[in-house]
Design a protein that fits this description.
The complex is a heterodimer of chains A (222) and B (294).
Chain A lengths: L6 H4 L3 E3 L3 H18 L5 E7 H10 L1 H9 L12 H7 L3 E6 L8 E9 L2 E11 L2 E7 L2 E5 L4 E8 L4 H11 L4 E8 L5 E8 L5 H8 L4 E7 L3
Parallel strand pairs in A: 2-3
Antiparallel strand pairs in A: 2-4, 4-5, 5-6, 6-7, 8-10, 8-11, 9-10
Helix pairs in contact in A: 2-4, 4-5
Chain B lengths: L5 H11 L3 H13 L3 H24 L12 H11 L6 H18 L3 E3 L9 H13 L3 H21 L4 H4 L5 H15 L4 H15 L15 H20 L8 H14 L16 H11 L5
Classes of the chains: A alpha+beta (222), B mainly alpha (294).
């Protein structure tokens, strides 16, 4: 991490137990998926890998993931009754096992369905409640959810990054971290931009107008 | 990458005639750029949740998610009220509280990680008992929480606070060290005495492994929280008596980090060693997860 620790990194977080990686981190993965979908899903398929798969019954990882998908925060006492709440909210949930290969032992694939849309993420709980999403709709990404995040899908051509930076700069948006990932040189690429300020739709509309940009997604801080 | 030293903070606190807790609070206000009232209230909120957890653990009928623990805190608390406890009512109450909070954690209740969920019982257990037996008010306790947080920051920076990296010495050892410092300052001890207490706890916890049965945060975690709470009081008493650690605390903390790295992976939260590999543990693991354990 490299940043100087705060008192509240030590005394905190306030959370539903038992485990910051298997419970609190799992809630945040669920929240991330919910956030990306943008609304309540009617169906959620949760596929657990590795340690998540082996120990979920003892850590309540399934409850935590479902809780996050239902938009519960990490300290919501409803988490231990997540299945009942899913039923109340008419969200169909299923838990399955999956082998995702060489990924972090605490990894899950979450597929959420709504009316006209479906999203799929692969994300890991990497310790102390921190998470990272490593795949979004089949595309490799690296999203931590600690900041407001813009995710673009664009054609990998010269000049895109500087055009995007210029738009952000014009709107006085400070970039905290930026990653660029691409499938293959000259094909589709993705920018993951974590910003200090909230980004509004005016900015995303401007970004969408750029030729090379195919889609822009806003993910708020988890 | 650690340039933080607990000794430097203690020297500054003593030079300025303030407590370590006040110094840590100042640092937090500076770094966070938040007003003092907000920083104070954030810590106060955590104290409220800690107290709720103790009360829940002592009054509710708890069974942990894995079914391995539940009710031990209540049992000890009743024993303490009815019998003359050998270790003394204050200490045994703190142990009972710590067990209770660990059970709340293990049953998906709400807790404050301090510094982790695995060690979430020690600090609340100790402070709740101090408030009850010694009559400290919430403001005094909150300042004690800043003392504890400061110790945690130094341990987290110089060594680690993660069981997966440093074993249980990094979680319950750190939690007990944080509690010991808070006990000393609340009891009117000096910042330097708080520092000595931290050294005593960590030296005692040196080498403590993380060997959780079935990989859960239940056995032996809850009881390590209990024992950690007791060790915090013993360390505080030794420090307040004027006893000093032969090895300076910052060197002790660094050593703890090194020992943590030297621990085999089997003893660092993988449930592949220690009591996690006993015949009973294997049977329990099968029972909980319904399949053959490794």
């Amino acid at each position: 991490m490299g940043k100087t620790l705060s008192c509240f990194d030590i005394i905190g977080p306030i959370m539903i137990g038992p485990s910051s990686s298997h419970t609190a981190g799992a809630v945040r993965l669920g929240l991330m998926a919910r956030n990306i979908l943008g609304t309540k899903p009617y169906k959620a398929v949760i596929e657990l890998h590795g340690s998540f798969a082996d120990t979920y019954k003892g850590h309540g990882t399934d409850l935590a993931l479902i809780g996050g998908i239902l938009n519960f925060s990490t300290d919501d006492s409803r988490i231990k009754d997540a299945y009942e709440w899913a039923k109340k909210e008419s969200v169909e949930v299923s838990i399955e096992y999956v082998d995702l290969g060489e990924v972090h032992p605490n990894t899950a694939k979450i597929t959420l369905f709504e009316e006209s849309n479906k999203i799929e993420i692969i994300g890991s709980s990497i310790g102390g409640g921190s998470i990272v999403v490593t795949e979004l709709n089949g595309f490799p990404v690296e999203i931590y959810g600690e900041y407001e995040t813009i995710v673009t899908s664009h054609y990998d051509v010269p000049g895109v990054i500087s055009k995007v930076s210029a738009i952000l700069s014009n709107h006085h948006i400070n970039v905290a971290f930026m990653r660029v990932v691409r499938e293959k040189k000259g094909k589709m690429a993705s920018m993951i931009i974590e910003t200090d300020q909230r980004v509004d739709t005016e900015v995303t509309e401007e970004l969408m107008k750029l030729d090379a940009i195919k889609s822009v997604r806003l993910i708020s801080k988890i | 990458m650690d340039t933080i030293n607990l000794l430097d903070w203690v020297e500054e606190a003593e030079r300025r005639g303030i407590s370590l807790g006040k110094l840590v609070l100042e640092r937090e206000i500076d770094n966070s750029e938040l007003p003092k009232s907000e920083v104070w209230n954030m810590m106060k909120e955590r104290w409220e949740v800690m107290q709720d957890a103790v009360r829940a653990g002592l009054t509710q009928d708890i069974i942990s998610k894995g079914g391995l623990i539940g009710g031990e805190g209540k049992k000890l608390s009743i024993y303490q009220q009815n019998e003359k406890s050998l270790a003394g009512s204050l200490v045994v109450d703190a142990v009972a509280n710590a067990l209770a909070v660990a059970e709340v954690n293990a049953s998906m209740g709400k807790i404050v990680a301090s510094p982790t969920a695995g060690s979430c019982g020690i600090l609340p257990g100790v402070l709740f008992a101090l408030k009850k037996h010694k009559g400290f008010n919430d403001d005094q306790i909150v300042e004690g929480l800043f003392t504890a947080a400061g110790v945690g920051i130094v341990i987290g920076t110089k060594a680690t606070l993660a069981g997966a990296l440093g074993g249980c010495q990094a979680e319950c050892g750190a939690g007990a060290a944080m509690a010991a410092a808070a006990i000393v300052e609340l009891s009117g001890g000096s910042p330097d005495q708080a520092l000595q207490a931290v050294a005593f706890v960590i030296k005692n916890a040196m080498g403590q492994v993380c060997d959780p049965v079935a990989g859960l945060v239940e056995v032996p975690c809850a009881k390590r929280n209990g024992m950690g709470a007791a060790s915090a009081f013993v360390a505080a008493d030794m420090a307040l008596a004027g006893i000093k650690s032969v090895i300076p605390v910052d060197e002790v903390i660094t050593a703890m980090g090194e020992v943590g790295r030297a621990l085999p992976e089997s003893l660092r939260e993988t449930a592949k060693g220690g009591i996690a590999k006993t015949p009973t543990a294997k049977k329990l693991t099968e029972k909980i997860f319904g399949k053959k354990a490794d």
